[in-house]
């Protein structure tokens, strides 16, 4: 398998899903993983009938010892809406024109020819993790595939990963098969209705009679290893689901036509929560960035969310589009998983995240969650840079076009994009400070709105003064004293603008009123709200800890008092505030 920074269950999920996705019939498949303790009857058939004959050496000899109280635990990985494992059942038989040799590649051959192309499973070594996941190194493989125009059932047991050995003067590879003994002494799969009946008898979730697909049963899977050693019984399947969330969330994103993959994870018949990327704390911001990118690329040309920015990554010499970078600003809730903040989810055509690339963090109190998708025209360039576990883009291993390495160029462009975005600048002018307030407000929106979004920003008032978030009388001004802040009232998030008076004569009285407006993507104040859209609602002024619900309050010049104007904030919007200050008496 080669070296990898990923844990066993992440590699298992990634490789198994990639094999299933490569075998898809259309742009949607079902992918189910079940952690199951077989019944006594099922365990007896599996151990005493199917695997009753064991080799003289190897991990598979331990199968009988994995039965506990007459039952054995298995991990089944099943896909539906896929082609199944078709083609010849022998590796030395050439497939018919237009026919794939999927069965022999998966069951017979360890390793894979480059002629298979550069899909997610480019090197074909990924199946090795299936045997690594078993304490006895054994899998039972069932498949339904079209062979010569007819659907054929196939069932065979396979062991992998054992070292070679010598027995009675003969050398053995350490790989073993369980099935039907052919006349030439080679083990072939059981086929036809008998194969299906056997698979059902040991609890394999086989496809419907008229459908194609594959089910792999991993015997006696390894225990999940936590930081403190072995942990709870459900932690293995929980870890596999977590791996799907982290690495395969793009396939679960629904932007109107349903997800590409229907995931299901269960433990002894009890299903874990379904994967909803827009609600998963660890990846929800990536999912929104990805969805914005996909919508922008669609024929509908949907407008971007205000908190998302797209940038096309290009090579200049030669001019070549390398991919699209979608960047989304957000501040996390306390409950959010911040492990992936300020990273870029790198991916190419298979839409499984290759890795999360750390990038320069903003200097302000917000994070950026980004997605880079390589352009289909250069997918091969990025594929060749990946190790066998597909968990990195290694620049030195990428193919070159002339002397140009597109993987190096793309990664450098991405890194520089974030460095330039967050580069400290010279002292700002008043106009730049207003723009900075909007940027801070953008970050706040991720906290206030419940999802990443624009927040509150102070806009110049319409009074006779020079603006800057204030409306002036001739002798006094109301100024925004700090960035907008979060308040929680009645369990609901609100945004508060903090104002104070400057100037004026001691004892002068003024009426202070405030309004809030929705800010558009361009920074302009929205006029008429879209039909049915919710606008910011004034809640009241908070003064000395007391809430005053009147829109206008009486204030005294030179009082050093702070006045908080509180509004509700609709999700996924930016709001600004303007104040009006009128002299009542000198």
Protein architecture, described:
There is one protein chain. The protein is an alpha+beta fold. The protein has ten helices and 30 strands. The protein has helices spanning 8-22, 40-50, 102-108, 128-132, 192-201, 235-252, 284-297, 379-384, 406-421, 430-448; strands at residues 29-37, 73-80, 138-147, 150-159, 165-167, 170-172, 176-178, 180-181, 187-188, 190-191, 213-219, 225-226, 229-230, 261-267, 270-271, 308-316, 319-330, 343-347, 355-358, 367-374, 456-458, 476-480, 485-489, 492-503, 509-519, 538-543, 546-548, 552-556, 563-568, 574-585. The strands form seven sheets. Strands 1, 2, 3, 4, 7, 10, 11, 14 and 15 form a nine-stranded mixed beta sheet that branches. Strands 22, 23, 24, 26, 27 and 29 form a six-stranded antiparallel beta sheet that branches. It has a five-stranded mixed beta sheet with strand order 16-17-20-18-19. Helix 1 (8-22) packs across helix 6. The N and C termini lie far apart (83 Å). Mean pLDDT is 82; it is low at 112-124 and 425-473.
